[in-house]
Every structure is written in C-alpha cells, then in structure tokens.
C-alpha cells in the first residue's frame, strides 16, 4: 500500500515538473529588434514592447512594427522609472498597455493613447507627477487599479463610455484634478477612486451607478456638490469623509438620503 502511495506521489511530482518544463519552453524570450533599440516579446502574433535599450529621454515615438511584426502591446514595466522621458507617442496598432508600463516616469508631461487601446493596466501611469493631461480613448473598456494614481499635475479626466467600473485608487492623489466626467456605462466606483483629489468641486453620478466604494471621494476638500441617483444602493465607509463643504443632491426616500442622514452629511432632496 505504501509502495503504491509512493509511486503515486512520484508520478504527481513528475507531472508538475513536466508542466513547468513545458511552460518555460513555450514562454517567449525577450528579443532586440534589428535597430538595436527596442526590446520585445512575441504575443498572439504581435510584438509587445518590453523596454528600450539604454535610458530613453525626451520625446519617444514607439514604432508601429518591429522586424516586420506589428506592435500590439506595451508590456508590464516596459518604461517603469524612466525618469528622463518627457513625452510618448503610442502607435495606432497598440491595443493594450500593461501593468506599471509608464509608472514613475516623473518627467512625462504628455502621452498620446491611440483609439485602438482597450485595456490600461494596473498602475500603468502611477507616479507620473508632471503628466498634465491624458485623453482616454472611447475604445477603452477596462482601467485597472491605480492606473493614474499620484499624477499630481493631472487636471482633467474624461472616462470614456463603455467603461463599467472605476477601479480602486484609479485617480487617487491627483491633487490638481478639477473635473471628472463619469459616463452612463459605469456601474461601480471603487474604493478610494478619487481619494485626495483636492481640487474637484462637483461630480454628477450617472443613473447606471449602483455602488460607491469606501473612501471614494474622501478628503476632496473643495468638493461642494455631488448628485447621487436613486440607483445607488451601496455607499462605503467614509466615501465622502472630510469633505467639509459638501452638499449631496439626493432623491427623497433613496439610499443616498438615508446615508446622508446617518453620516451627518448636508443634503438637498430633488425630484427624479
């Protein structure tokens, strides 16, 4: 019996080792293009930028193809902490921007995101403290957590129609953000989504939204008016904490009205 168990365990280990070997074997290795400038990997018939040979500086234009292969993605950490990068142009062929792709590019002031991009990864632009404006194209369907957090110079954020969720910390610590447009496609606003956006004065929550996360607008010091529809049935702890000038506009008998009363937040009731 013990012998059979031992054989079974050994076979199990061999299966795991074989799976790992196969996974490593099929993983695409990083390449350098013919010009000697770009690092990339092949993914699903396209090239995903893995980085730049040397330290990029100034304005950088990413090519639309490498070694005859279309560039379809900006990979994870591709330009993380490139402190001297001031501008970036992403080609129309790109559909995805990976996690930490441009994080901590502290000198980056402008970026052009093409219409074909559908996904912006986790913390993709976090810490780009001099980024003043970014246009998120209409094709974007998912913006991951902290994508634009700590972008202290960002002034305007227009979220495209089609995005269903504003994730955790997406625009947190964007101190200079003065306005945000939330489209009718959004269903949920995540935890700390606009935390410490201290220059936002007003927000209209569309009727598609059902939940507002914990600390979503906490410490938005000059936030004076937020319109909350009857569709919202869940508001997290301190969603509007330390918003001293805030007056909520709510529907009579709605969850938002009850929330305002329970949390001692000033409000006015308005007809639907």
Topology:
Elements: H1 2-26, E1 31-32, E2 38-43, E3 46-52, E4 58-61, E5 65-66, E6 69-74, E7 85-89, E8 96-97, E9 110-112, E10 119-120, E11 142-143, E12 156-158, E13 165-166, E14 179-181, E15 188-189, E16 202-204, E17 211-212, E18 225-227, E19 234-235, E20 247-250, H2 255-262, E21 267-269
Parallel strand pairs: 3-6, 4-7, 6-8, 7-9, 8-10, 10-11, 12-14, 13-15, 15-17, 16-18, 17-19, 18-20, 20-21
Antiparallel strand pairs: 1-2, 2-3, 5-6
Describe what you observe in this structure:
- The chain has 272 residues and is of the alpha/beta class.
- It has a single domain, classed as Ribonuclease Inhibitor (Leucine-rich repeat, LRR (right-handed beta-alpha superhelix), Alpha-Beta Horseshoe), CATH 3.80.10.
- It has 2 helices and 21 strands.
- The chain has helices at 2-26, 255-262, and strands spanning 31-32, 38-43, 46-52, 58-61, 65-66, 69-74, 85-89, 96-97, 110-112, 119-120, 142-143, 156-158, 165-166, 179-181, 188-189, 202-204, 211-212, 225-227, 234-235, 247-250, 267-269.
- Strands 1, 2, 3, 5, 6, 8, 10 and 11 form an 8-stranded mixed beta sheet that branches. Strands 13-15-17-19 form a 4-stranded parallel beta sheet, covered by helices on one side.
- Strand 20 (247-250), helix 2 and strand 21 (267-269) form a beta-alpha-beta unit.
- The longest helix has 25 residues, at 2-26.
- The chain is elongated and about 65 Å long.
- Mean pLDDT is 89; it is low at 1-27.
